[in-house]
Amino acid sequence: MAPARSGVGGVPHLGALGAARRTSVGSRTVPWVVPANISLPTAGGAYIVVFLIFSDHGLAGPHLFAGIAVGVLSCALAFAAPWSRLPEAAPMAVPLLGLLGLGVLTADRLPVALLTVFPVLTLARFHGPLGAVLGVLGGTVVAWMPMVTSREPLTTAQVPSVLLLPIVLVTIAVTISRMQRSRQARSRLLARRDGTLQRTLDDLADERALLEGIVESLPAGVLVLDGQRVVLANAQVERLYGPVDDEAEHPWRMRAARAAAADADGSGAAEAPDGAGEETSLAERAVAGESMTGQTQWWRAADGDRKAVRGTAVTLSAAAGRDPLRVVLFEDLTQEERAIEQREDFVRAVSHELRTPLTSVIGYLEMARDTGGFAADTDALLDVVDRNAQRVLGMVEDLAVASELKTERAAPLLSGGGSGGGGSAGVDLGEVARASVAGVCYAARVAGVSVGHACDGAWPVAGDAERLRLAVDHVVTNAVLYSHHGGSVDVALREGDGEVRLVVTDHGIGISEEDQERVFERFWRSPAVRGGSRHGTGLGLPVAREIVMEHGGRVTMRSRLGEGTQVEIVLPAREAGTVGAGRAA
Question: Which residue in 433, 539, 535 sits closest to 489, CA to CA?
């Protein structure tokens, strides 16, 4: 994931907006002085020219040249003065000079008093209350200048005309001042919003950088999808599946696009591109919209190495009217899977190497005991050796079966045939249960535990009798092993909903709620029994559940610490109508 990208698949990142720009609201710059004051010399010059052309006013009046000179001076100041280096109030000199020029002209009885509106507007708009007051006073002086210079008494008829212009100027100044205050308030509000927006943009940029760093540093691949379009992918995804840009013609991208096209036209099939394997990658399935949770797959990565990949897709919530994004996480489990394979290879090799000498030891023990002639204490010692050899052989068999189940080498005969009593009628789970109870009787007597069963009659299920016998043996043996001296174990068969249920109940030490979450993990044993006299490999219940699951069934457990445990094996009945048929009354 490169931070410089503007976005994958046309979806822009925040970086596409460019660097955050700080906006200064309401600031004054040099050019405003000229346009703010240009209206007075323009209108005034035009008015004077027209007035002089169409009137008989004398052209040689001293006030005319003085007024025009003051106006030209104000224009020159507006253009040439270095306002940026002068105090903020300095630009008031331009409109005040304009008022002075108008006052000089009106002293020569030139009717330009109405032009005072322009400098008053400038002063009220750009220089606040002080400018408005100065503009009104200056405009009033200009309006009254002819009356002052003539020294004639003011008549009643002249009062309205004398007061009219000051009233107009006051009205204009007040109105403009209020408008300016409102504008300044809006400017301050915009400035605060600009600051808030700036801080938000900075925070978003920081969060984006943080998220990019986190996503890029993750050991897992992260893929974000908008529909079938890739929005974001980190380097781990590209390392597994190749580049994900729209321009890249990678097989998983092409197949996903073809699958989408096939769904759109209703054909429901998409041809694999040349060079693409038959197996569909997790990335392709994710782009095609398939949901997945912890699905693992071996895949030949973009660099040519075989990788074990686990994929999980999560759909994010979206605002109304927007399609939700999907985040897909790809975990590289290659090292873990290879370690598991090595462990299974080791277990398989050890179990194979141990089975032959143990079988030989047990065989020679039987031969030795058959010859007879041993003293009573020697014969008892041989019994101990035989029992322990049988125990070790049982553990070796468990390891071998667990390894076969893990590598999917076991194939239960669900079609009806099976060793040890399969046949067309299926496996009699009642017979399997009774044999298992009989097989554990000796160990139960030694442990002081009574074992009872309610398994009479025929209970046909489909499967491999030897495998099912192994699963039931593990469950019943566990029940005896973890029972108290003087306790009891009950084995019962039940029917219902086309299923056969084998229920094994003990009243032993029980299992805590925390440990119940792990009892079906291989080689796991509760810390409460690891150092005690109850020995085991931690394979009993895991192997039993895997066998039952391969037969289409399930294993459940209910337990309370100190009160006992109930394990239930549920298998589909061979024929729902014959479940329990032939059962003893």
Answer: 433
Rg (CA), the chain: 49
Amino acid residing at 32:
W
| SS3 of residue 497 by DSSP | coil
- Is 340 within 8 Å of 330 (Cβ atoms)? no
Residue at token pair 């300095």: 90
- Residue 114: the pLDDT is 84
Phi, psi dihedral angles at 307 (to 5 degrees)? -125, 140
Residues whose CB falls within 8 Å of the CB of residue 225, separated by 6 or more in sequence, listed in order:
231, 286, 287, 325, 326, 327, 328
Q: Report d(CA 236, CA 91) in Å as an integer.
A: 63
Scan for tokens 């949770």, then name that residue: 293
Residue with tokens 């041989």: 382
What's the pTM? Answer: 0.47
Residue-wise pLDDT tens digits, 59-85: 556 777 788 888 888 888 888 888 778
**Quick check: 579 and 460 in contact, CB under 8 A?**
yes
For residue 189 the two structure tokens come to 């509000």
**What residues pair up with 299 in beta bridges, in sequence order?**
307
- Which residues pair with residue 451 across a beta bridge? 489
Beta-bridge partners for 332? 309
The rounded distance, in Å, linking the Cα atoms of 188 and 396 is 83
SS3 labels along 545-559: HHHHHHCCCEEEEEE
CA distances from 125 to 62, 143, 327 (A): 33, 21, 56
The residue among 385, 344, 547 whose CA lies nearest residue 464 is 547
CA quadruple 572, 578, 582, 585: dihedral sign? positive
3-state secondary structure 187-233: HHHHHHHHHHHHHHHHHHHHHHHHHHHHHHHCCCEEEEEECCEEEEE
Flag whether pLDDT at 247 surpasses 70.
no
Amino acid at 231: V
Helix boundaries (H) for 448-554? 465-481, 513-516, 527-530, 540-550
CB atoms within 10 A of CB 36: 20
Compute φ and ψ for 111, nearest 5 degrees.
-75, 75
The structure tokens listed for 421 are 């009593």
